Task: structure prediction
Amino acid sequence: MKNVIIFGAPGSGKGTYSEEIVNRYGMGHISTGDVLRAQIKAGTELGKTAKNYIDNGQLLPDSLMIDILADTYDSMPAGKGVIFDGFPRTIPQAEALKEMLAKRNHDMGVMVELVVDEKVLLARLLNRAIEQGRADDNEETIKKRFAVYREQTAPLAEWFEKEGMRHTFVWKEGEMTKEDMLNNIYALLDTLK
Ligand code: AMP
Result:
């Protein structure tokens, strides 16, 4: 299985769809947000640093994230492909990922872009706050995360376009189910070896 980069704004469903994709294709899953939340829970130095950024809706520095990503990637079973969920979020991170994979003779694979209207995202995240109690799912931090996404992450879509990797899936609120969205994604991933 090739690598997959799942890309989209906070609340676009990256984590949810990643889990389904992992179940279907048996690949590895790297969620940088989950890696950081585990460090916070374990009370490590990295966790303390991460918490300051996460609670403010800001991105951690690229150099730190790139090291974390490489270590996590190298700890995954080889040859099964990995879904990258929440990485890359900036152009330097994307360049670093490209270089890291090239060094290991691994393919970048495809990028799956989830496009969801911001009003829908806000409602979903406020709902997730009630269900999962994530500290960064409050309205103030959510708005900061949207701004960070628009300014630092969204421009990456063009970068993937130039790499010939971009595949866009648009959520049509009220017209689609989660299964419809997944089936569209599977139609792409089923064509990959
Ligand atoms: P997520 O669970 O993917 O929404 O990530 C939660 C938070 O973790 C983000 O708002 C950032 O503060 C931090 N984070 C996760 N991934 C990255 C990344 N690739 N680069 C910088 N910060 C990240």
About this structure: The first helix runs from residue 14 to 25.
